[in-house]
Design goal:
The complex is a heterodimer. By secondary structure, chain A is mostly helical. Chain A has helices at 3-28, 32-36, 38-48, 51-55, 80-103, 110-129, 133-151, 158-189, 194-197, 203-206, 210-224, 233-236, 242-251, 255-268, 272-295, 299-320, 323-354, 370-384, 390-400, 407-432, 451-469, 471-487, 503-520, 522-536, 540-562, 567-589, 604-622, 626-646, 650-674, 684-710, 716-727, 734-742, 744-766, 773-790, and strands at 60-67, 72-78. Chain A has a domain at 154-535. Chain A is built from 34 helices and two strands. A two-stranded antiparallel sheet of chain A has the order 1-2. In chain A, strand 1 and strand 2 (72-78) form a beta hairpin. Chain A is elongated. The two termini of chain A are 60 Å apart. In chain A, 47% of the residues are buried. By secondary structure, chain B is mainly alpha-helical. Chain B is built from five helices and four strands, in the order ααααββββα. Chain B has a two-stranded antiparallel ribbon. In chain B, strands 2-3 form a two-stranded antiparallel ribbon. Chain B has one domain. The relative contact order of chain B is 0.17.
């Protein structure tokens, strides 16, 4: 098979695996993980073969036409950036699937979990390789939806449900902003594919719509990547099982926003707006995240807040946009995925084996779990930016970006050092506290984690180590192509473990020293942070609740106002509007009918029938009780039916007779059923108002009919039906042929409506009579008039 | 509505009207009539019977629940359209056959089947409404 077909298969494979996962898990239990992990592993291998080509600067695109008439395609773009992402997603994905096998061992819903996480994998993978805007958006929203399913996996708990909904609303809402942004980009550039967009020069940046597009795209990216003030959903998302936190909420999904910014950096980046907004929000997120992380004692929450910090750091770097900043972003993104994934899985192992992930309840586990301890330590060393780990390289490159000796760099350098030092302290708190110190008594007998649990974090920790050792190769194959893709021009990353003295190294030393200080005083810092937060009291998380509550209240108030439930109000409003439309239109367009023409020789019987109709109406108006009025209305209806008959419409007339008969019967029934008082007891002003509306409607409709009939009648359809009714449809009755043959699909829809109306009324009648009484009558009248109209 | 004359005439009138409604349905394609009108006539017939002898009697007489009749009608009408798809022509295309039954050539068509579906839907839905209203109205 050729590469295009294979790549398509690779993109579809996770969804196929998601389909078979529940069945497989039923038969194999947690060992299904070994089989299911083959899917992401195969994808990893498939994309690995692109590495040499991409490293030599090639950009691989491919795909299929989807909706050619709208220029929409299912196509992918594989360059340094998307390839790195895809390898991370599939590689970590395989490990996460294995880890979930151990973590959710024996869980009754394990199959469902595998299904969700594989679906997520497929969505995330699709997102990063998407070339067409539409595909990007669809996969973007799919990651939000699958994340919703995974956060709410334990849907019996209210906290999980709330967190899931919150994440969906925030990231899904951001997705809509992104859609709007993409539409603007499409309109300005005229292309629907990223690969074509990237070849645009400064045209987009000079467009008057640039700022709007930028804000919308940032709205999507910031919500997805948990930038302040949209960060609150991320810590709440820790309600999800730990494999989800490790995979979605540190290594992959939250990086989607960062990916988007990196992807669009060549076309949108470098402007003053970009260089102001991104670093500002980024650095705020970095510091707030780090400060909030210090406050927590739950390992998962600490890691979640540091993830937020790291995302802030990445956004800041992309915003700064200098060569070193871009290279640092590329390195840090990969390093973070490796160490944060490993640390999250360690937190999950501790939770799984000891029953707690609260630092204050853990201690002295080093002898019981030496392997886990080693993995945690490797992760923390990388996260703290110490050699010989990958995190060190990323951090060095980051500090290189600040060695330009100007005020702006100095300011960002100070803030970044502060944030990094806090993260350093948190990293070692997570990696050391549970393992060192005196043994704390545990409810469970603690022993080392099983293979399925430790293999994932071990591989990630090893990778973080080996990449740093073989930095030359890693840079050539991964980092440099990725940095080039972000920058939009060729870049070479050169940082290595070789010692180098200078400002970056000094900043590193400062970070470590400061971080060490923070670590020692962590308890005091935590107390201080808690006090400060208690003083502030309000946070975006509570703000979200207030917003949702306010929205619901507004909706209720609006609905109450518009849908008061009083039938008279609805009817009055409807008919007043009808009258208004019918009367305003002729005035607005000056289209009054000419005075009607009365022929002198109207036959006596026609005059008599019209007289009967008028008499019927008169009887309705003067009737003393409702039943008489209903029956009198029937007189008018029958008279109209006779007129139809006289003018050669027997079908219409026939139906009118039946409808009138049934209307009288049903209305009489409704009256007795609703126990209406026989007489009409409306007060005079209300009566006058109703009379006015009725007269206005009648007048308007009369004018309208006179005007319409004054237009010369187009006989095309009549002739068509008369000509073909017999020859094609084998029927002489044109009306019937139209209903059951020429326009039969319409009729099918109409009888479905009749059926549904019948069901609805039956349901209403069976409900306790009361406030619904009026609704029943309304439905009936509506049904009758609809039936009349269709004939 | 409990006069002896009405109660005596009602069954006869009802049966005649139902018969007539079927007649109207059948002749609909060539002369005034059709499923919709036929259905309305049948409903009127049932309403008269109900007034004379009570809803329970009518329900027993029609045996099926009115909504079941309507559902069968909708199914029939849809099925009539689907036959065309199975025959390889677009949905709802009229198909005709002329089998000779007892030596007489009878034109049968999916169009007629469709019209019968319309008839059943109208009978079922409207009589369901009328009967349920009448039932509780007497309480």
């Amino acid at each position: 098979m050729d590469v295009t077909a294979l790549t398509f298969l690779a993109l579809a494979l996770p969804f196929v695996a998601a389909l078979v996962a529940p069945v497989l898990t039923r038969f194999l239990g947690q060992n299904a993980a070994w089989v299911l992990a083959i899917a992401p592993a195969a994808i990893f291998l498939h994309f690995l073969r692109f590495v040499p080509d991409v490293a030599s600067g090639e950009i691989v695109t491919g795909g299929y036409a989807w909706i050619p008439s709208f220029n929409v395609s299912f196509s992918w773009l594989i360059d340094g950036l998307s390839l790195t992402f895809v390898l991370l997603i599939s590689g970590i994905g395989a490990l996460i699937v294995l880890y979930s096998g151990g973590y959710l061992k024996g869980h009754p819903q394990q199959g469902r979990f595998f299904c969700f996480i594989l679906m997520f994998m497929g969505s995330m993978q699709g997102l990063v390789v998407s070339d067409s805007f539409l595909m990007l958006f669809v996969f973007w929203e799919l990651t939000s939806i699958t994340s919703f399913l995974l956060i709410g996996f334990d849907h019996g708990r209210e906290a999980a449900r709330r967190a899931a909904l919150q994440a969906l609303i925030v990231t899904g809402g951001g997705g809509l902003l992104l859609l709007a942004g993409l539409l603007i980009l499409w309109n300005v550039s005229g292309v629907t594919q990223l690969s074509l967009l990237l070849s645009f020069g400064s045209e987009l940046k000079e467009s008057p719509f640039y700022f709007a597009a930028l804000l919308l795209v940032l709205g999507g990216a910031f919500t997805k990547s948990a930038q302040f003030p949209f960060h609150f959903w991320l810590p709440n998302a820790m309600e999800a099982p730990t494999p989800v936190s490790a995979y979605l909420h540190s290594a992959t999904m939250v990086k989607a926003g960062v990916y988007l910014l990196m992807r669009l950096n060549p076309v949108l980046g470098g402007t003053p707006e970009w260089q102001l907004l991104l670093p500002l929000f980024g650095v705020a997120t970095l510091l707030i995240g780090a400060a909030l992380a210090v406050r927590e004692t739950d390992m998962k929450l600490m890691l979640a807040y540091t993830t937020m910090s790291s995302l802030g750091l990445l956004v800041m770097l992309i915003g700064l946009g200098s060569p070193h900043a871009i290279e640092a972003a590329a390195l840090y993104l990969v390093a973070h995925a490796l160490f944060k994934g490993a640390l999250f899985m360690v937190a999950g192992i501790l939770d799984h084996e000891t029953g707690s992930r609260d630092l204050s309840e853990l201690g002295g586990l080093r002898s019981a779990m030496p392997l886990t301890f080693a993995i945690a330590l490797a992760g923390a060393l990388s996260m703290g930016g110490l050699p010989p780990f990958f995190g060190f390289l990323a951090k060095e490159e980051l500090y290189f970006a600040f060695s330009t000796f100007d005020l702006r760099s100095a300011l960002f350098a100070i803030l970044t050092v502060l944030g990094n030092a806090l993260m350093f302290a948190v990293a070692f708190a997570v990696a050391l506290k549970p393992f060192l110190g005196p043994r704390v008594s545990m409810p469970k007998h603690v022993h080392e984690a099983p293979l399925l649990l430790w293999i994932g974090p071990a591989v990630l920790a090893l990778k973080g180590f080996s990449i740093a050792l073989m930095s030359g190769l890693a840079h050539r194959l991964i980092s440099s192509p990725m940095a080039s893709a972000i920058a939009g021009e060729a870049r070479t990353v050169e940082i290595s473990l070789e010692p180098h003295l200078g400002l970056p190294f000094a900043l590193s030393v400062l970070t470590v020293a400061l971080g060490g200080g923070f670590y020692v005083n962590l308890a005091r810092l935590r107390a201080g942070m808690t006090a400060i937060l208690a003083d502030i009291g309000w946070g975006p998380d509570r703000g979200f609740d207030q917003f949702v509550r306010g929205l619901v209240r507004f909706a209720v108030a609006l609905t109450r106002r518009l849908q008061g439930g009083r039938f008279e109000v609805y009817m009055t409003a409807t008919f007043a509007l009808v009258a208004l439309v019918l009367l305003v239109m002729p005035f607005r367009y000056g289209e009054f009918p000419r005075a009607p023409f009365f022929s002198a020789d109207v036959p006596a019987h026609e005059l008599a029938i019209m007289a009967i109709a008028v008499a019927g109406l008169f009887a309705v108006v003067v009737a003393s009780d409702r039943l008489t009025a209903i029956v009198s209305l029937g007189i008018q209806g029958f008279a109209v039916a006779v007129i139809y008959l006289l003018y050669g419409a027997p079908d219409l007339s026939f139906t009118q007779f039946m409808i009138e008969t049934l209307s009288v019967v049903v209305l009489a029934l409704v009256m007795t059923r609703l126990q209406l008082s026989p007489a009409d007891r409306r007060p005079l002003p209300e009566k006058m108002r109703d009379v006015a509306i009725a007269l206005a409607c009648g007048l308007g409709f009369g004018l309208f009919l006179l005007r319409v009939t004054a237009v010369p009648f187009d006989r095309t359809l009549t002739e068509f039906f008369n000509l073909y009714s017999k020859s094609i449809a084998h029927g002489a009755n044109v009306v019937n042929v139209i209903i059951v043959d020429f326009r039969a699909t319409d009729t099918l829809g109409e009888i479905a409506v009749v059926m549904i109306t019948g069901l609805a009324i039956l349901a209403l009648v069976r409900l306790r009579a009361g406030s619904l009484k009026r609704a029943v009558a309304a439905e009936l009248v509506a049904d009758e008039s609809a039936a009349e109209e269709r004939v | 509505m409990k006069s002896v004359i009405f109660r005596t005439v009602a069954p006869v009138l009802t049966s005649l009207m139902v018969l007539f409604s079927v007649f109207v349905l059948l002749r609909g394609h060539n002369e005034p009539g059709g499923g919709f009108i036929g259905g309305l006539i049948a409903v009127s017939a049932l309403a008269i019977y109900g007034m004379a002898h009570g809803v329970e009697t009518v329900r027993r007489a029609i045996f099926f629940h009115p909504m079941a009749i309507a559902g069968a009608g909708l199914f029939t009408a849809t099925f009539a359209g689907l036959i065309s798809i199975f025959a390889g022509v677009p949905f709802m295309t009229g198909l005709w056959i002329y089998p000779a039954i007892l030596g007489v050539e009878i034109p049968l068509s999916t169009v007629f089947l469709f019209d019968a579906g319309v008839y059943l839907v109208v009978v079922g839905a409207i009589s369901s409404i009328a009967l349920s209203l009448e039932e509780r109205g007497g309480e």
